[in-house]
């Protein structure tokens, strides 16, 4: 009985984490709430991997059935988001549009005075740091929740308490 309550609780948590990942990934397409940068292809390349939208969002919703895949998909989101955070945003500097912090191995993250190199979109460094950090946190939590679900499901199967027969009234 306790594992049913725990499983249901984890499912609700996983669904809410997935929905938040979708929302946060969509926000990454609109720095400062403007559509211009997405339509003119002036976004960080890791935004186009759809890590929060597809892999940590939609695919994690399906992971209620496929928890093991949920670990892989959320792990993908975590890695891609970390890479996007370390690379820094694609922005316009005095030298034109490029990755202003590429090759710094993320050192720019601890020195906010360097962030002013990005002239456009306004506050794009803060935007990317906050949203990629949120995606890293959400997908990390999803990996943990999916891992717990896999352990619970495996223990049910191995201990003989897992039923593959659908009982009337369950669905």
Short description:
This is Transmembrane 4 L6 family member 18 isoform X2. By secondary structure, this protein is mainly alpha-helical. The chain contains 5 helices and 2 strands, in the order ααααββα.
Q: With helices defined by DSSP (H or I, 4 residues minimum), what is the helix count? A: 5
**Spatial order of the strands in the main sheet?**
1-2
Structural class by sheet pairing and helices? mainly alpha
Binned strand content: under 5%
Q: Topology as H/E string?
A: HHHHEEH
Shape: elongated
Question: What are the segments in which pLDDT stays under 50 over at least 5 consecutive residues?
Answer: 162-168
How many beta-strand runs? Answer: 2
Helical coverage, percent range: 55-70%
Mean pLDDT: 81
> Major sheet, described briefly?
2 strands, antiparallel
Span between termini? 18 Å
Radius of gyration: 20 Å
Family: Belongs to the L6 tetraspanin family.
Organism: Heterocephalus glaber
Membrane topology: Multi-pass membrane protein
Keywords: Membrane, Transmembrane, Transmembrane helix
